[in-house]
Design a protein that fits this description.
By secondary structure, the protein is of the alpha/beta class. Helices cover 59% and strands 7% of the residues.
Length: 755
């Protein structure tokens, strides 16, 4: 961009990526709860089938323990914005164990979607059959498993489309589902309490060995051994069969990248909301089921505890039937929402793997319209659909192996965070509590205890769940081999594997204006070029409230006058590998801050001129630059001010902020005419002249500005006369006395912290 170019030939490339979409902590909590809260529909029945009536206590223990596990994820996310299992294990223990961990996690994600969708289909199919039976309509009947499989496929395809569109579409749907679920949960809890108050309740047996009644298939390879008779082992078996209540934590780590500013605080808020909601819903459902439903009939409702509760509440039968229908509707919604969570989580995990070069770069190319990683999403959904077809709606077959990936990914994540305490002992924004020091050595007792418990649960699951162990190990090995072979292939093709860069969707436009780029007037324009010198951007991200001001990050692609003239440039000529590299670092900083920025590249023969012209067209209020390695701040200010003077009238009000490398010191310049900052002695001189002249006639009509005005006009007259050499000499003497010129190179006070 140069002043001599015609506007029609000016081209701007706007770069977008889904990685710059941010959501509130409520939406983040809703996404995770779509997985965690959905387990309330089936975990109580599964746990009671395995260990007997004392199951609610074990579910409550798991829900309380989930808060400790969540603390591990918050610590890892404070270290790495994309702090999922793969990233943390890779940093702590290397690529091989990271691939093993993520392979186990993918087993969980591939099963979560089908299990949830099939369960929703079974709920809905059961309601259809029950309605047909009560209305005496034999034609209103479906084959439960096949209907569930078909319904699961439709739900999976629906959320596939929403994830292709982008995270805002998916998080909005998850939030709506959780709002409807909350209405049902509040009604259920209140109605259950009223029933207990009116009819009394059956006590829930305490979790002691005498009250544990293991089913034949609950012991696995421990059946017939002395193990289950040992109290600690019996308790661990009970906890192992209740682990289904604690899925979804990895989704919190994956969605952390999308959480808006202040990121860590909002992550903690989301974690607390998830804990309270899931603990109340999941644990209370299992407690109320034992307390309200008689032992005999309850065995018929183990696959539908909430539906059974609905039928045993106090009140008229039609009202209970209506509420049962509402329960089924909400169950269908929330279980379907877990499909969405599984797709989001899987996509996040595979993105981390692809970034490390373990998957081919082809997978991460953004969607042409929406900018999402559609090829990864397509792969995930295809695996889920294949799983649904193979299962043919048999939820037991799917559920038998569900917890394998969950517990092993938890255990590896906890061990990795523990290793990083010693491998990278630097300061952290947040730590798992219960830490003390022996000398200079930190002892993370809380983290150690959580890690030990998770590995103990993982080992118990291996011994007590034969189907889960065999299928989980087989799937994990298969995925590990795929990752390993892909990694070897990529490294052979790229002998020197470069750092993985972000993928951007590029939109070339001829119109460069605030409305065309969709930024608000008064935005802040941040000029970037060197990916290793972005201190000024980091400062602006920290100081700026993006709810009030937009941040535009601009890179100028230097071209010759011939290249920027009559013929338009191709997008590839404007957006090169250099722009990709610097914008990848920009995205990393924006993710860390949880704030959205607009990315754009313009061609120009002079970077300073292009920046000023772009700021004028976008009606920016401020230009922010880093300190040039070749120019002083005053020289930078003078250069930018010179190009501002070349703008056509009316020239906009602009300021320039130059951020020094320490991020604390900044220099401000007002561009163009602006009130000067007078030296104290000049103010004193003007005041004395005002006092003397006031007594000579003008009186109260004389103001200090009149003194300055007369002095400036007399100086102008002398400067344009034959005495101009005297004026120049006076100015040079003034500068030599240590006074800077009263122009835009004069530093201004720093603005408030929150712009």
């Amino acid at each position: 961009m140069t002043s001599g170019q015609r506007p029609a030939t000016v081209k701007v490339v706007v770069a977008t990526t889904v990685m710059l979409s941010f959501i509130s902590f409520w939406r983040a909590a809703a996404i995770v709860l779509s997985d965690l809260a959905s387990s309330a529909y089936y975990v109580g029945g599964i746990a009671e089938h395995a260990i007997g009536k004392a199951a609610p206590w074990f579910i409550l223990a798991i829900m309380l323990f989930s808060y400790a596990v969540r603390a591990i994820y918050i610590e890892s996310c404070s270290m790495f914005v994309r702090g999922g299992v793969y990233k943390v294990v890779h940093e702590a223990m290397g690529g091989t164990l990271a691939k093993f961990s993520v392979s186990a996690l993918m087993f969980d994600y591939v099963l979560t979607g089908p299990i949830s969708a099939v369960s929703a289909g079974l709920y809905l199919g059961g309601l259809i059959n029950e309605t047909g039976e009560r209305l005496h309509m034999p034609g209103l009947h479906v084959n439960g498993p096949y209907f569930a499989a078909a319904f699961a496929a439709v739900v999976t395809i629906y959320f596939w489309r929403k994830n292709i569109i982008g995270i805002h579409e998916s998080s909005e749907k998850a939030l709506r589902i959780m709002q409807i679920t909350t209405v049902m949960v509040v009604i259920l809890i209140v109605w259950c309490l009223v029933t207990i108050f009116k009819n009394g309740y059956n006590p829930v047996p305490l979790p002691i060995p005498a009250n544990l009644k293991f089913s034949p298939d609950a012991l696995g390879w421990l059946k017939g051994t002395v193990g289950p008779s040992i109290t600690i082992i019996a308790v661990m078996i009970g906890l192992g069969h209740s682990l289904l209540a604690m899925s979804g934590e990895e989704s919190l780590a994956q969605v952390n990248r999308e959480i808006a500013h202040p990121k860590l605080k909002n992550l903690e808020r989301a974690g607390f909301v998830i804990f309270v909601y899931s603990m109340l819903f999941t644990s209370l459902v299992s407690f109320f089921a034992v307390m309200i439903i008689p032992d005999g009939p309850r065995q018929g409702f183990l696959n539908n505890l909430i539906g059974g509760l609905s039928m045993y509440l106090v009140g008229p039968v039609p009202v209970r039937l209506l509420f049962n229908g509402f329960v089924v509707l909400v169950g269908t919604l929330i279980l379907s929402g877990a499909v969405n969570t599984a797709i989001i989580g899987s996509n996040g995990v595979l993105n981390r793997v692809a970034e490390d070069g373990v998957l081919p770069d082809w997978f991460r190319h953004p969607h042409k319209k929406f900018g999402t990683t559609s090829r990864l999403i397509n792969t995930i959904v295809l695996l889920q659909l294949i799983t649904i077809v193979i299962s043919r709606g048999d939820v037991y077959m799917l559920g038998e192996a569900y917890a394998f990936g969950v517990v092993w990914s938890f255990a590896m994540k906890a061990l990795s965070v523990l290793v990083l305490r010693y491998k990278q002992p630097g300061a952290r924004e947040w730590k798992v509590p219960l830490n003390f020091h022996i000398g200079k050595t930190e002892i993370p007792l809380g983290l150690m205890m959580i890690t030990v418990v998770l590995f103990a649960l993982a080992c118990i699951n291996v011994l007590t769940k034969e189907v889960a162990t065999i299928s989980g190990v087989s799937f994990t090995i298969a995925f590990f081999i795929i990752f390993e072979l892909s990694d070897i292939s990529n490294r052979k093709r790229k002998a020197a594997h470069p750092p993985e860069l972000e993928k951007f969707r590029l939109d070339a436009r001829a119109d460069l204006s605030a409305s065309a780029i969709s930024v608000r007037p008064g935005n802040v324009l941040v000029a970037v070029r060197n990916p290793h010198r972005l201190q000024h951007l980091q400062r602006i991200l920290t100081k700026t409230d993006t709810r009030k001001l937009d941040i535009v990050v601009l890179s100028v692609r230097q071209v010759t006058q011939a290249g920027s003239g009559e013929h338009g440039l191709d997008t590839d000529q404007i957006f090169s590998d250099d722009e990709t590299t610097v914008f990848t670092q920009v995205v990393t900083l924006a993710e860390k801050a949880g704030k959205h920025v607009e990315l754009m590249v313009v061609p120009g023969s002079d970077p300073y001129e292009a920046v000023v012209q772009t700021a004028a067209r976008l009606t920016s209020s401020r230009i922010v630059m880093g300190l040039s390695p070749k120019l002083t701040p005053s020289e930078q200010g003078e250069l930018v001010g010179r190009y501002w003077e070349q703008l056509p009238e009316p020239r906009p009000s602009l300021s320039l902020e130059i951020v020094l490398e320490n991020q604390k010191d900044t220099v401000f310049f007002n561009l163009g005419p602006h009130p000067p900052r007078l030296w104290p002695e000049d103010i004193e001189l003007a005041h004395h002249l005002w006092l003397e002249l006031s007594g000579m006639g003008p009186g109260a009509k004389l103001h200090h500005r009149d003194i300055i005005g007369v002095a400036l006009r007399r100086m102008s007259d002398e400067f344009h006369s034959d005495r101009y050499q005297e004026v120049i000499g006076d100015v040079l003497r003034e500068i030599s006395n240590g006074h800077a010129p009263e122009t835009e190179s004069e530093p201004e006070p720093e603005p408030p912290e929150e712009v």
